[in-house]
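Many introductory courses stop at the sequence. We go one step further.
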Amino acid sequence: MELLIEGFHVIARLDVLIALIIGAVGGVIIGAIPGVGAGVAIAIILPATFQFEAIVGLTLLLGIYGSAMFGGAIPAILINTPGTPVNALTTYDGYPMTQRGESRRAISLAYSSSFFGGIFSVICLITITPFLASIAPLFGSRDIFMAALLGAILVIVSHRGKVLAAGMLVSFGIFINNVGMETINYSNRYTFGLQSLISGIALIPVVIGLFALSQAFVLLIEKDGQLEKLPEVKGNLLQGFSELFRFKKVAFPSAGFGVIMGIIPGVGEFLAQFFSYSLARMVSKKPERFGNGAPDGIVASESANNAVPAAAMIPLLSLGIPGEVLTAMMLSVFYVHNIIPGPTLFQTRPEFPVSLYLCLLVVNVIILVFLLFATRFIMHLIRIPTRFLGVCILTLGLIGVYSIRNSFVDCIIGVAFGVLGYILKRLQLPIVPIILGMVLGGIMEVKLRNSMARLETPIDLINRPVSGTIFVLILIVLLAHFYALYRKK
């Protein structure tokens, strides 16, 4: 209870509340514009957050992260175009409902399901925070190294059908992290005599290049879409809350899947949606309705994907290991302000993670209130020409890259990775493994070097209870993956 009170004191500050409102409202607007998404927005705004206090910068990013999927449901339901990639499954049943003249009902259900999933996950996380604080002292350097290795493996095997490509891209990310002068022997690694590479390749230019600039190239090359006549959404949007109780057998398991999948590194919203949607269809008395305008299909997808953001903070805060790319971006904010997420955070500053959870709780309330009054205005954002968006993203992305270190070299690096990201998108290959490879590779290198003084044989790496357990989990994941490949063949 004391931690909750301290957390409320933190988020009651005026600057934190302003950051929450700007992040929540901005995230909804960004999510409603097809082709942008939370990843692009966070990549652009990330350099600016370094100037703020840690809690202010993180609440701004959390507001965008937690609200973009709310806004992304609007174009998914109205024009069959998901605002964010995560809302793709919402189009299956949302757009058919719009074609039947039930657009208000579909949007209302999406709002209520998203709100339920977000609140459910935050309550779960606040409940298990004391447990995290109690087990935090059990994690040493070897344990965190093994956890980071497990995260890298999960990132690879979660890309079904593209496992080889994902593995190569994770390895490429680890390689990028090794460029520059290492801090033990002060030797240059892979600099090829270039003075500009001695300080290494920073994470932020890579993030902005892969996400923001690559998306700008996609939008600039594509033709502007035809403006569509939007269906009208009139009436009370709170209707979905009363209707949500009719689908409680779908909402609770879907939100639970979102929490579980959010905690597991490298999994995220897509797998949570897949499981929850499949379960809802299996338990439904009329499974043939799914994909043709089933309201419980919207409940399943939106409850699951909005439960993930809060849960994804668990591996980041407890182990310092980002579960997916947006939390990897947030990790840089921690480092800039000398706050090291991991086991010691729950011992030294237990109120800090609690305040972040409470921020996510408040964000969901702000989003819901904003959407109830501003949905009609947000609908018009769908009409913004894609090439105009591309120019804006490209300009803001380059400004963000240059502002980090006032370095023209960083701009070149950002553009190079923007071209790489564009190529990967055209080839339909994942971008996320590169970022997670950079972050997890850095963690693995530091923790392995810290533990080398206590290692006499390779077995010593896994002879602790925690590291040994994680090693067993790695074996199980690999065996399950190869067994699935064998069954498929």
